[in-house]
Design a protein that fits this description.
The complex is a heterodimer of chains A (264) and B (240). Chain A has 264 residues and is mainly alpha-helical. Chain A is built from 11 helices and no strands. By secondary structure, chain B is α/β, with parallel strands linked by helices. The N and C termini of chain B lie far apart (46 Å). The chains are: A mainly alpha (264), B alpha/beta (240). The interface between A and B is medium-sized, with 30 and 33 residues.
Chain lengths: 264, 240
């Protein structure tokens, strides 16, 4: 096995072990979307009527509509959680251990990112399983088709988190930034309401939602769950991943980025 | 060939100069104590030596490998113990070592063999199955030293490794690392501000305000038990 693969296996294995030993984290990550699904969506079902929009071919209930958004929410929160733990690792020093390994830094960061995404995909599937038993049935093959969509969307959100981790020096600052990132990103997207609904109240808000990369992550997942490929969403997600991964690598570059500034 | 060769190294945080033209070398088997008061630039120097920072001026070579031009080859030849603990407390001693071994390209089997070897060397063989969280401060430090030896480096860097330890643990760790230099021919750079960790035959580098003020054998720099006074006098801040 090449040193690259050995390092990747070790980093993924470590994350998996962490995941298994931190069951509370797993449950906490599920509670959030479940509350939205079981409480919020149930309450709003009557208030929000939805027309037939792609990829749906019939009228759907509100619960069915928000499932892809809640799956993306799991990826979003996990990405920010991983970024937070990166800042923590950097403050506590364990990040140094990783970065002094004799491998290219981009590879080490990529492995770290992938490890976090794989854990969040497990959580997304656990959520989909609960939703299934709650009565939200998706096309059986949709559960397979959604896997690459989850991977790409998770990598994009992880790259955003990695970029934030590279620019923020202190843990306390990061908590604030998370609130500024997570909530606008989530609410200004198609996770909870379709674009045409947003346009009814404000075209500006609709435009912001349409530009939000998280919207495209949600739509990529939504279409994949119904066995369809949303090329436009895929393009946006891939582009956003490339941009933020590039910025994150720049931030972690010892010659240029934030690592070169003194932590006080 | 020197295990570590630092030439004309400078570094600044914005307008503040943290290191000014630092040059020194450490030979195989040499225990070099880097003495400096708080704020002398020791941690910055360590960040540069481990490539967490990159200097715009100067050169660092590890066993002849330039850290800037061939970072992977240079990093593969050095073991590092950082000032802050970098163990995964939820993993066992053996798993901490295996993880690090994999980062350095060791196969699982090879890593297990090396782990037994280094734990034996650090008198920790019986603790392989214990969780890192259950170890006391001294043993955690020993584990970090064992981990830094997993890939058989030729240079060992330790940044104030005895901070926060009791006197007995400090003495044990200092003795262990002196043994590694003496018996295994390992080059050691040991940053500290505690002069009692230095033995008369050690090389001493005194760093103050980003500059090397003195380099030489401890016994040549100051008479026995006189190193502390010499160090204090050399690094005394002028009173206003």
């Amino acid at each position: 096995m090449s040193p690259y693969l050995r390092a990747m296996t070790a980093i993924l294995g470590r994350e998996a072990l962490r995941f298994l030993t931190q069951r509370e984290r797993f449950l906490a990550a599920l509670v959030r979307p479940l509350v939205w699904l079981l409480v919020f969506a149930a309450g709003f079902r009557a208030a929000l009527g939805l027309s037939i929009i792609p990829p749906y071919q019939t009228y759907i209930t509100y619960e069915v509509y928000i499932v892809p958004g809640l799956v993306a929410m799991i990826l979003l929160f996990n990405a920010m959680q991983s970024a937070l733990s990166l800042v923590y690792d950097r403050e506590m020093g364990s990040m140094r251990l990783l970065l002094t390994a004799p491998l290219p830094r981009w590879w080490l960061l990529f492995c770290k990112l992938l490890a976090g995404v794989l854990v969040s995909i497990l959580q997304a599937y656990a959520f989909l399983a609960i939703a299934y038993f709650y009565g939200i049935r998706l096309p059986p093959m949709g559960y397979v088709w959604v896997l690459p969509a989850l991977l790409i969307a998770g990598m994009m959100l992880g790259a955003v988190g990695l970029f934030l981790a590279s620019t923020i020096r202190q843990l306390e600052n990061f908590a604030g930034v998370m609130n500024f990132v997570i909530f606008p990103v989530f609410f200004l997207s198609t996770a909870l309401y379709p674009l045409w609904r947003m346009a009814e109240s404000s075209t500006l808000l609709r435009d912001i939602c349409a530009w939000n990369p998280f919207t495209h992550a949600v739509e990529l997942i939504r279409f994949a769950l119904y066995l369809r490929l949303n090329l436009e969403a895929l393009g946006w997600v891939a582009l956003t991943f490339a941009v933020f991964m590039g910025l994150a690598l720049w931030g972690f570059d010892p010659a240029r980025g934030m690592m070169n500034r003194k932590t006080r | 060939m020197d295990a570590l060769d630092v030439a004309d190294l400078s570094f600044r945080y914005g307008r503040k100069e943290a290191l000014k033209g630092v040059s020194f070398h450490v030979a195989p088997g040499e225990f070099c104590a880097l003495l400096g008061p708080n704020g002398a630039g020791k941690s910055t120097l360590f960040a540069l030596l481990t490539r967490l920072f990159v200097a715009r001026q100067g050169r660092i070579a590890v066993m002849g490998q330039d850290l800037q031009a061939a970072p992977r080859a240079a990093l593969a030849r050095m073991g590092v113990v950082f000032q802050q603990m970098t163990l995964d407390l939820d993993l066992s001693v053996a798993r901490n070592l295996a993880y690090f071994g994999a980062l350095h390209g060791l196969s699982r089997r090879e890593a297990a063999l090396r782990a037994s070897e280094v734990l034996e060397r650090l008198d920790m063989a019986e603790r392989a199955g214990e969780k890192a969280r259950d170890l006391n401060g001294g043993h955690r430090r020993r584990l970090e030293i064992a981990r830094a030896l997993m890939h058989r480096p030729r240079l060992l860097l330790l940044d104030e490794p005895t901070v926060g330890l009791d006197a007995r643990s400090r003495a044990a760790i200092t003795a262990h690392v002196h043994g590694l230099a003496r018996d295994d021919g390992l080059a050691v750079l040991w940053a500290t501000h505690l002069v009692d960790e230095v033995t008369p035959s050690d090389t001493v580098l005194i760093l103050h305000q980003g500059q090397i003020l003195q380099r030489g054998r401890a016994q040549d720099i100051a008479p026995e038990h006189g190193l502390a006074a010499h160090f204090m006098a050399l690094t005394e801040e002028p009173t206003a």
